[in-house]
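Sharing in case it's useful to others searching the archive later.

Someone asked me privately for the predicted structure of UPF0102 protein DRF67_17050, so I'm posting the question and my answer publicly. Question first, with the sequence:
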Amino acid sequence: MADHNDFGKIAEDRAADYLKKNGYKILIRNFRFQKNEIDIIAEKDHQIIVVEVKARSTGAFILPQEAVTKTKIRSIVSAANHYLEEYNADKEVRFDIIAVLPDAKRNLIIDHITDAFQALDAN
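And my answer, the predicted structure tokens:
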């Protein structure tokens, strides 16, 4: 596996740990629908939280959250709609981004952006 894939997996693990420590219940990780994938689906306060984890080994070019494009949002929303139908989940949905970047000492820093986008942003 390539180094960037290893880093991405580590970032997703850290994001899931962060969510658990902050009272979120992880429902599923790496949920796939067709070619679309949701990194983490969690639940908190009677809401379904759809989480896109974005990690960069450096913030020199763009911040991780800036990599969530309209195309990516469409993909996430499509997969989220399928999840809600498949699991008959009748709850409010929130879309979050967790950005992961290393600090100067190579410790991973989590930036949790709640309500980062709406399903309407997919249009």
